[in-house]
Structure formats: structure tokens, C-alpha cells
Write a structure and sequence with these properties.
disordered N terminus; 617 residues; 25 helices; Sodium/glucose cotransporter; 74% helix; mainly alpha
Length: 617
Amino acid sequence: MGWVEGSTALAPIDIVIIVGFLVLVTGIGVALSKRAAGGLDDYFLGGNKIPWWILGASTATSNFDMSGTMIIVAVIFALGFEGFFVEMRGGVGLCLAFLMVFLGKWLRRSEVMTSAEWMKVRFGTDRQGRTAHLLSAVANIVLSLGMIIYFAKGAGKFLTHFVPLPELWCTALMVGIGLAYTLMSGLYGVVFTDLVQMILLVFTAIYVSVEAFALRPEVVLPQGFLEIDFVIEQGQGASLLAKDPTGWSSIFQMFGLCVVMWLFKVTLEGAGGVGGYTDQRFFAARSEREASLLTFESIILSIFRWTMVAGLVIMGYHLVQSGAEGAAAIQKDAEQVLPIVLSKMLPAGVRGLVVAGLIAAAMSTFDSTLNAGASYIVKDVYESYVRPDATSKQLMSVSRWATIGLCVAGIGLAAVVPNINKIWGLITMGLGAGLAVPLFLRWYWPRFSGYGFAAGTGGGLVAGLLFNTVLVVPLYVSFPATVAVALTFSVIVTYATPAASDEVLVEFWRRIRPWGFWRAIAEKAQADGVVNAADLAARKLERRQDYTALLFAIPFQVCVLLGAMSFIFHAWDQLAVFGGISLVTGMGLYRCWFKALPTPLPDEAADTDLAMPEPAE
């Protein structure tokens, strides 16, 4: 159950605040329920009427999850700055840099509802397109289920520190509330509750960061804590994290190599997309300009998460060095730092707000995943292959049943998962590694066929599960093996099957304007009169601008987060370096990215186009 020393840490005022927050988000779901009643577009995309700044806040809140924050705090507490590079596997969210510069606008240009439906744009609507579509839907449903398990495990483990109930009951409580407003209001409810939740999270982060900044002179950080040399010395944090011998200890053995693998995997994801709820925000954006802006906002808001992580680490070391209650539990399991710090170092009232903020973070990840996961079941499986003639009313009914089914399955499987890191590692370096290769190839290799995508996706998914749950081999073996399986299946099956038709490829290239090996398709499009010389020149200019902007975006995101942590840690030399790089790359982004964004469309000038659609009959 976790650390249960002493009585519940919540005072009556804390309970009132938390209950009030839960009532508020449920009320938002009720108030917005009519907006989601117009059909699947309203339920899953908000009718493409939601302003970018709300979608950006929602994206940031969805990435600011409780389970992830618990494991990130644990890794930074144990390894210092080098723990940041462990979280390159997913916690840093480095794919946002790619989404901001080019991938977000490519997704918006697709004009589809789900990542699986996108396959029909790329591979056509014949058998190979339908095969890619179905395998993509299955993969995204599995990934969504994994994220729900991850949420459920972390939420239950966190709440047992504050609520005198078993872990499974705590999970069911949070899932029930998140399920209620997601069922009622779809994406509208998700993003508007996320906006409220982000306000709470910002307060939480500022409070923890300010308190920790003042406390820092009293705390002695371990030797090497602020160094970055990509080598984990024997004993450096191992006793805090190596409870899983096939997880952390294998990372310590080949830490530098693992960092390279994480960066390679993030680059594949960033350039190819990650699917799930992330893509949904870009499909829902009002324009490609807003798809880019919402990602920049998400990167900036993520600074609050990392200053809070640094603050929690400082508070954790303060508890350990002062010998306070809970210190022994922290030294046995670094995943306990976050809940024990909140229990012991925050006053009543503030504790309630902070706990409510972290509950908000967890529910945001959950509701985003749940809404996106249900969309794959309804749009890409039920409507496409089970009941193509289903009415809007029937599809809405199936949407709600799919949402409930994902919840039940996630809670059940969470009961058998041993710890948060186990499921996070499986999602990021197991399932994520298996899906990254076909997702990357689909954009850049015209010859890549729908059958190749299906084979690569299926093979990668099975390999990721096999190497991480059955054979349980170290990361430096499982990751390259999974990637190799996905790549082999993708290439062999592609060359054994026909490519998509020229008409499909030309239309895809015309609409999306991707990078890669599309010269022959571009020449055909020009010969057929689909584009002219001026359009080709404009496309080349856009590519050059995107290439240059990406060179600024990646170091900007990394250094602005490391700089924020350096400030809280009073690491002034590191702050000077990371801050300087952030400033220079930020200026480069302004010139090469922001100034190159398309001008706003007329209906984007005022962010008031949220008119209530008429409810369905």
C-alpha cells in the first residue's frame, strides 16, 4: 500500500478544498455536456472551435501527470541532474519541440479525427489502407490502456498517503469522477477542466518552488548531484531505485548507452508522432498556426512542473537530513518522496490545494487518454468495421460504453502491476519503441506501404511486450531488439507488397507537404498540374525554415527546463550556461519559427467562437 506511518495527513480544511475541486470539475462536465451532444466531431474534437491557448493549457496539464511526477521526483532525487536524462525516455516531453516546429501543422493539415483514420489519408481506402488503419487503431487502444493502467497505479499509490482506504479504492474514486465528466462532455469537458486544473497546478508549483528555494541553503545535496557526465557511479542512488533488478540496475550498467537510446527514441517519436491523446489536440486545433502555438505554450507551462520537481527534491533531502518522520521510507523507496513531502512539509489548507493540484494532474492525463482511447474504438473499429451504417445516436452511445470499458480494464490490470516505473518503462521503451519505427517511416518514405505499416506496427508491438514482460531483458538489449524487429517487418513486407497508388501519394504530398524522399512524387504532381513552380519554391522555403527552427527548438526546450531546475537548486554556474543557451535559442526561434507562422484566420482574431451547438435530437 505504500507508506502508512502515522495518521492521515489531511486536515478538515484540506478535505473541504479537495472535495470542492472534485465537485467543480464534475460541474464543468455537466455544464458542457450539451456542447458535446452534436455528434462525434463535437464529442472528440470540440467541433474544431476550441482556441489554441485552451488546447495548449490542456496539453501541458495532460503531460503534468501525477504518476509521472512521482517517478521523475524519484529519479532526480536519486541521480541529480543525470536523472533528467533518464526522463528523456518520455517525461521531458521532448517530442513537443518537433510538434511545435513542423509535425503539429502536418497533423492539422490531415483534417481527420484520430491517428488511425490518418492512415487512410496516407495509404488510401483500399485494402492496404484499411489494414494500416485497423492495426493503428489496435495499437493506439493498447497504448491508451497502458496509460490508463499507469494513471490508475500512480493515483492509487499517491492517495493512500492521505486517504485511509486501500490503493484500489483510491484508484476507483478518482477514476469514477474523471469518468463522469468525460462521459458527459467529451473533449470539451477534458480541455476546460484541464484549464482549471492547470491553474491549480501553477499555484502548486509556485508554492513548492518558493518554499524550496528558501530552504535550499540548509540542504546539502549529494556529491556529484549537479554534475552531468552520463556515468552512474556504483552506489549513486542505486539503493533508492534498484528495487527492480531488470529495470534500474540495467540502466546503471550502461547509462551513457541508455541515454543515446532514449534520445534516438525521442527523435523517432518527435519526427514521426506518438498518437494517442497528443495527436488529438492537433486534429482539434482551428488552424495549423494554432497547432504550432499551442505546443509552444505547452513547453513554457512545463517549466512549472520541473521547478516543482526540483523543489520537492530539496524538501525530500531536508526531511532525510533532519531525520523527520518518513525519512526512512524515502531512503527505501524514492517514489515516496512526493507524497511524504506533502504530508510533512506543507501547512493545512495549502496542503489541500497542492494535493488537489496533483489530483488534477492525474485526472487530466486520465481524461485525455480515456477520450482519445474511446475515439479509436468508436471511429476506427465500430463505425469502420462493425456498423458502418450506425446513426449518430448509436455512435454516441457506443462512445460512452467504450469509455466505461477502458476504465474497467485499466483498473483491473493496475492491480497486478508492481510499481509505477514498471508500467512507465513498458509504455515508453517497450510499446513506444515498437511503434516509433512505422510511425516515422509513414511520413518520409513514399514507397512504405500500408501492409508494411501494419506488419511493422504488429511486430513492434509484440516485440515490445515480449522483451519487456516475458523475456525481461535489459534496456540496452530490449530497445534495439524491438526497433530491429519493427524495422525488419516494415521493410520486408513493404517490398513484398505494392505501394499506395500515385493518386493517393500525390494528394498526400500536396495536402501535408512532408519532408523526406518525395521528389519523384513532387515531379509527378508538377507534371499533372497539381502544383506549379511558385508553389514548389514556397514548399522549399518552408522546409528550410523548419529545419533551422528545429535546431533552435530542441536545445531551447532542454535548456529552459534544466535552467529552471538550476535556479531552484541554487546552481548558479549551471544556470548561467543553460540560461544563456535558452536566451540565444529563444531569439533564434522568434526569428525562424514565430515570424514564419501563417497569419491568423479571420475567425481566430477573437477567441469567442465557442457557440453552443444545438443538442442532437
